[in-house]
Model the fold of this input.
Amino acid sequence: MKKIAMAATGAALIAVTVGSTANAEPTGTPTYRQLAGVGSDTTQDVMNGLSQTVTINGTKVLGSYNAVGAPTITTKDPAVNNKCAITRPNGSGAGRTALVNSLQAGDGCLDFARSSSLNLAAASPGLTYVPFAVDSVTYAITPSSVLPRKLTLADLKAIYHCDPNYVGTGPNFSVNALLPQAGSGTRSYWISQVGITEADVTAGVYPCIKDKKGTTPIQEHDGRVLDDKSIVPFSTAQYIAQGATVADVRGRAILGTIDGKSATVLNSDFGIKREVYNVIPTSKIGTAPWSTVFTGSDSLICKQGEVINNYGFATNPNCGDTSKQTP
Done:
């Protein structure tokens, strides 16, 4: 365990104890787990932490594979199932798609997906979004940014609408409003907060919005994309978790304050906050080990409040709820 102190908003210091789980694949024994999951960058670290503490009869059962790493992952023991060398899914949307594809194929390669956004579009077979924690989302800038460290939500909407009259930009809007890669849960959540749509982004309605650095898609929660004239959404929990792992890609990023409220380690008093989920097949809600690990307030994950808090998330009073289901 490693104790760190960081400036979560550029002002307030927060001390957090986080386990060092920078590995992109499950560590320790068994190598391959009963429940294999992929998807969200935002929740990969907390799920790595939970994969070390959630056990059934003393055996680790969660295998959570990071959003970024080697292009191919193997989620099940090849000696038992040789179909499970798959392309690594990057982000909530890609994780959901990979889970659905696996379920439709009946190959047994994936059992759940991580998601930092709620997507109740129809799925076959049906999916259930099971909340387990709460995250806050704010903006990140550099310490020498042309943008202030304190903004209102109205300010942020003006920035992401490329308003040339926004205070501090001058007559020619020069700030790049960055977004993470397509399929990112943080991207879909952020654009909903600032009042734009994915169709707006795709059509280039707002020319100051960029989702690539050069020709490379921007990875969510990678502060190295920032310069002094750019802004990007950032998960508070990810910012905190990166401070305690070798996979620290925050660069010079600092987190901003929105509407006078600072993002905090537990995220419970911040205006822009969201539930984060594990997505499971609806047909498995009452079937072990899905039911044991994910569903209900007494599930194994919901009992791990300390681990959830240690990774910068707030515990969720709705943890284990199974009412959010796709048609």
In short: Helices lie at 44-53, 92-105, 153-160, 185-193, 198-203, 236-242, 290-293, 305-310. DSSP finds eight helices and 20 strands in the chain. Residues 1 and 20 are 6 Å apart (CA to CA). Confidence is low (pLDDT under 50) at residues 1-22.
